[in-house]
Design a protein that fits this description.
This protein is α+β, with helices and mostly antiparallel strands. It is built from three helices and ten strands. It comes from Geothermobacter hydrogeniphilus.
Length: 186
């Protein structure tokens, strides 16, 4: 009996930490499963889930696709109209999570604390987006989760042909990639 208890303790300690909230991002090209890191990015995850739970992302598009860099969405509908958002959140880029391939991070303007609904998924390791300091130039972009299934879908989105339309549509997919829904996994 002691050996069984010891084995259970060892297995418990050796197993990876419990994942945060898992969400399914259903797109017109397939489904992407994400694990969100509530422990290291609590405000960012809370913000993302508030938008997801309200159905905000339903019918939005990936409006910026840059092969070898990232795919960005969560702000514009299929008519290319910017959706009204909640107030910006505090940037949690100093949380120790890095912008590596397959991570999801918040998009923002040049203002450090300006992220609202838009996010991006890194296609490669983008070290230059990591937190390097507390000034505006070095603050970085807050990673808050990672793709755990469907990276093939992310890569498929990255390969869609794009066009230049100016403004936020400098790398707009010619054929829309629609986010049908983002929901918590059961």
């Amino acid at each position: 009996m002691k050996k069984l208890v010891l084995l259970l303790i060892i297995l418990t300690l050796a197993s990876p930490a419990l994942a945060g909230t898992r969400v399914l991002m259903t797109t017109s090209l397939g489904t992407i499963t994400l694990d969100l890191d509530e422990a290291r990015a609590p405000e960012t995850v809370k913000n993302f889930l508030a938008y997801a739970d309200a159905g905000f992302y339903d019918g939005t598009i990936f409006h910026r696709v840059i092969k070898g860099f990232m795919i960005q969405g969560g702000g514009f509908d299929t008519a290319l109209k910017r959706k009204a958002t909640r107030p910006p959140i505090r940037n949690e880029a100093g949380n120790g999570l890095e912008n590596v391939r397959g991570t999801i991070a918040m998009a923002r303007t040049n203002v450090v604390d300006s992220a609202t609904s838009q996010f991006f998924i890194n296609l490669v390791d983008n070290d230059f987006l990591n937190h390097r300091g507390n000034d505006a130039r070095g603050f970085g972009y807050a990673v808050f989760g990672k793709v755990v299934d469907g990276m093939d879908i992310v890569d498929r989105i990255a390969r869609v042909p794009t066009e230049q339309r100016g403004g936020p549509f400098a790398n707009l997919p010619r054929q829309q990639v629609v986010i049908k829904s983002i929901r918590r996994a059961e």
